[in-house]
Design brief:
single chain, 538 residues, alpha/beta, TIM Barrel, Double Stranded RNA Binding Domain, 3 domains, three-stranded antiparallel sheet, 16 strands, 41% helix, elongated
């Protein structure tokens, strides 16, 4: 049986770029557009030509680029009341963009017709019809966005439907029902969309997420008969955002049986989500459905035990279908199943139930002190290996000192001195940094790089501090989480340290990060150096 096709319309580059904290350069927009094209998005809305030089430049570059299958779409509004279509600057800009597909919006709600535009109801209908007709005569495929349609329909259904008739009668290819304020409930979206689909052939949905129903509203419209769906990657957009196209695509294809993108492309959904966040300089949302880091993460021991036997017991979908992966978290809620799963994932063979029980006991004791291993898997691996008697110590601390001062004109600087024993000798290094932890990290690298040149590629990528007992004021215990990454590679790893002294906690996390890297890049040499350290200590 052939699956029914849904046309996917992405507006990340236009509506998504209106989100707070999101600024996309022309290069950013082109990179995202090409990635959307490869994924299988059918129509990519690039921006509003004529509104700013950046969007104009984007369309110029898009016109000379090669696209795998997507159509680039220019966005604009119906003509102004005082202009005829052929002399309207906005409509002319749409033509100049050179795109085969254009998307224009018009008013569906009498409130906007009367107050925002200040025109009669009849004039608004003519603005819609004449604008669409003008563009279709120029051989454009017109996607008509009925702005505020659901609010307009609830206020005056007869007039709202007349605006759609005006667009359809003038040749609009798709009539898109927009929940522009994002305040409509799914039941109302279904009821209204169903009424529209009974009267018109090609209907779409454009939902915002102001009450958290963006995705649900898009799916409700599809159930009502809409076959064109708009959204943004990761739901970025005006105010709280648009309907998340990642969730929509996954639901439509894996839950509702529609044809959106090729199966092989669906397996890159998580990668697409992370790519857009990276280009837009946004932190990925771990809790995002399907694509989030936590979407298939299991923490409770009972859950993990069941997932090991039958994944569908606590997973609605094989994570690989959307390019994600299962994660088992280790915490004070862990049972032996969590530890065995993580050990197997890390390639560590625990010796029977006794060793597993000891590991669980040790982890819970450390978590009680404030350690958190679900966000510091590198430290967890080192802990497991040390419990098994494996050597991971390539160096030992003799002492460190950190000095922070303020110089001329208020300029602050930090300097760290680190002395460590490595390969049978004592290495002393001094380094400056942007803050005490950066200085400490730089000094440690400097002390070790002669013995381990590979450390030159390791960088401190992220640093987080959590106060665990705020009632203790300055004597509070703190937890430090550190992320390292390898320059020129994709490897990233996370470590943890806990102490009442923030520098001590930072040192624990820093040294775990270095030990982890050395263990995985040169384990035999590290073992030899660890043995030498033990012999020297004896």
């Amino acid at each position: 049986m052939t699956k029914e096709r849904i046309e996917l319309f992405d507006t990340t580059l236009r509506d998504g770029s209106q989100a707070e904290h999101v600024t996309l350069s022309v290069s950013d927009k082109m990179r995202i557009a090409h990635r959307l094209d490869i994924f299988g998005i059918h129509v990519i809305e690039g921006g509003w030509p004529g509104s700013n030089p950046k969007d104009q430049e984007f369309f110029e570059e898009a016109a000379v680029s090669t696209w795998k299958q997507a159509q680039i779409c220019a966005f604009g509004s119906t003509r102004r009341a005082e202009n005829v279509p052929a002399q309207d600057p906005n409509l002319q800009a749409l033509l100049t963009s050179g795109t085969r597909v254009v998307s224009i919006f018009g008013k569906s709600w009498t409130l906007h017709v009367e107050r925002a535009l200040g025109v009669s109801h009849a004039e608004n209908l003519d603005m819609i019809a004449s604008s669409v007709a003008f563009l279709t005569r120029q051989d454009k495929r017109v996607i008509y966005d009925a702005e505020h349609f659901f609010d307009g329909y609830k206020d005056n259904p007869t007039y709202a439907l007349r605006t759609l008739e005006a667009a359809a009668g003038a040749g609009a290819d798709v009539l898109v029902l927009c929940d522009t304020n994002g305040g409509t409930l799914p039941s109302d979206v279904y009821r209204i969309a169903r009424a529209v689909c009974e009267r018109f052939d090609s209907v779409g949905i454009h939902a915002h997420n102001d009450i958290g129903c963006g995705v649900a509203n898009a799916l409700a419209a599809v159930e009502a008969g809409a076959r064109h769906v708009q959204g943004t990657i990761n739901g970025i957009g005006e105010r709280v955002g648009n309907a998340d196209l990642c969730t929509i695509v996954a639901c439509l294809q894996t839950k509702m049986g529609f044809d959106c993108v090729p199966e092989a492309c669906l397996a890159s959904l998580s990668d697409l989500s992370h790519f857009v966040d990276e280009v837009a300089n946004l932190l990925p949302l771990d809790r995002a459905p399907f694509v989030g880091r936590s979407a298939f993460a299991h923490k409770g021991g009972i859950h993990v035990s069941a997932v090991l036997k039958e994944p569908c017991a606590y997973e609605h979908l094989d994570p690989a279908v959307v390019g994600n992966k299962r994660r088992v978290l280790v915490s004070d809620l862990s049972g032996q199943s969590n530890v065995r799963y993580k050990a197997r994932e890390l390639g560590i063979q625990l010796r029977g139930h006794r060793e597993t029980r000891e590991a669980v006991k040790r982890i819970k004791a450390l978590e009680h002190l404030g350690y958190e291993y679900q966000g510091a898997e590198a430290s967890f691996e080192l802990l497991l290996r040390s419990l098994r008697g494996e050597e991971t110590e390539a160096f030992k601390l003799d002492r460190f000192r950190v000095h922070t001062a303020q110089g001329q004109r208020g300029v602050q600087w930090s300097e760290a001195t680190v002395a460590v024993f490595v390969r049978g000798k004592r290495e002393l290094a001094v380094a400056e940094g942007v803050g005490p932890v950066d200085a400490l990290s730089n000094a440690l690298h400097k002390a070790l790089c002669l013995s381990y040149p590979r450390l030159d590629a390791v960088r401190l990528a992220d640093y987080k501090v959590r106060v665990l007992s705020s009632a203790s004021a300055t004597e509070a215990t703190v937890r430090v989480l550190i992320e390292h990454h390898e320059v020129g590679g994709e490897r990233r790893w996370h470590t943890v340290g806990v102490s009442k002294n923030i520098l001590d906690a930072s040192w624990q996390a820093l040294t775990d990060g270095i030990r982890y890297y050395l263990f995985h890049t040169d384990p035999q040499r590290l073992k030899s150096d660890a043995d030498a350290l033990q012999a020297a200590a004896a």
